[in-house]
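Risk mitigation, structural track. In case the binding assays with iron/sulfur cluster fail to produce interpretable data, a predicted complex structure has been prepared as a fallback.
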Amino acid sequence: MGDFPKFQKRVKAFLNGTFTPEDEIEFKRLFCSDCNFFKPGEDEELCCSCFLILKKLVTGGHITLKEISDALKK
Ligand code: SF4
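Fallback model:
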């Protein structure tokens, strides 16, 4: 599953349509779960610039979650 096991587990719910990028909390948990600074339920509204860049790229349609997931498996 590579270096981002929690991302790969959570991304399945997005790829099958259970969640969308508009679901703010689940979207944050998707990208932050593998981060050492992430504590579920605690300060989840705080965002680093890396997260914000990824969010902009995905929600802007520049890169898909499937492309990210596939790239991380290589
Ligand atoms: S916003 Fe950035 S620093 Fe914070 S948990 Fe997510 S990836 Fe980690």
